Amino acid sequence: MPVIVVIALVTVLIGTCMNQFVWTNSPGFTQAATRAGLDPAAFGIVSVTIYVLVAVLSFFALTVVGSATVERTRGTFAQWRLAGATPRQIRSALWCLVAVASITGALPGSLVSIGASAAAIPVFNQMAANSFPGGLGDFDPPAFHPSFLAWAASFSLGTITCLLGAFVPSRRAAAVEPVEAVRGLAVRRRRGAWGRWVFGGLLLLIAVTFSLGGAFAPAALEPGVEAAGMVNAAIQAGLFAAAGVYVLGPELIPIVLALIRVILRPFRAVALGVLATRAARADAEANANMIAPLAAALGLGGVIFTVLRSYQTTMQAAGFELAVPNYSDTVVMTGLFGFVCLLTSVAVIMLSGRDAVREQAVLRSAGMTPGQVLAFTAWRSVLLTGCAVVFALIPIGLGATLLVSRSVILTGHPILDIPWTGLLVAVLACWGALFLVQWLQVASWVRREIAVSLRRA
Prior knowledge:
Helix content: over 70%
Shape: globular
Strand content: under 5%
Distance between the termini: 17 Å
Largest sheet: none
């Protein structure tokens, strides 16, 4: 079910972009735009740009969910190998499973995209209007009609993207050794850890180089050149840092949670939180990509808007008159990125729902009440979200270091404008989603007999 939901929602995004592209290239729309003195191609460019972003994010999301599915069923694959299945048979079985899931998710997603297009297309048009001197002016577009070609393309692309996303997980599933049916999770987690440390460390090193190198670089003679260099270097540092956080997240989350547990242990009032840290650590170790996508999304989004706002404030302080900025396209792009990352984390959590039912049964058998199980779930969600925030502060901090140092050169004093309100809203949304999905997994079971939950698990 988590895979199907992800495929359906991603296909909705793809279908919306395809409907916009087909509609803006229709003869009626082209003629109306030309009569109004507008460039019809500018409308299509917006949808193509967003589709490229959606395609990249969907490939990333479906690969992560596919990998989590493989990890979740790794013991089953190992048992198949013990029973005599060949790697080719396992790979074929997984491909068939993914094909059924992709069609089941892409079909309703492509149908829903027809209705979603009517609501999203005005937003696309307004984004395209940013490139026109007078906005849309007296442009009167023809009535929107959904396209069969757009529906067929969205369905096909949603299915194909999912199958491509399953390529790497299917090879990993086929490479499962029979002996792993009796090995523990810790043995499997050690594999590839050094590669993540090296690659993630290299990305963070590059980010630090951009940040410190830009901070101590000689000042440019022209203020415009100086400001452009500040923006580019800060965003590049944030991009590499966010990528490094994503790669190293699975290795760093257990360390951060262990430190939090040490801090909370002396306080009896938060004994439930201490217990929740152990459960959150087990979640992070079992599902490596549970929090890393959220951390990357929060960090990268924070960097982008910190850079934009700080640039605007710095240039105004330096005496330059700038037009009122329009961040609608940036908001849409960043929102899509954050939504897909949040959806990915939620899907990974949903894959462990069977363990959640058994876990709450064990906790209740140890004496917990349903209310304490609720508090336990809330604590665990807070801890996981806290890890995402800690990691998100790394790219934001590196970008902020550069912005502060270069703003001193332009204005004589440090300037840094971090959108704390927006970041707080994003963090609360992440916590709410994580808490809701974890609580819904066990909400219908906490009032039942413990034996029923154990039998179900």
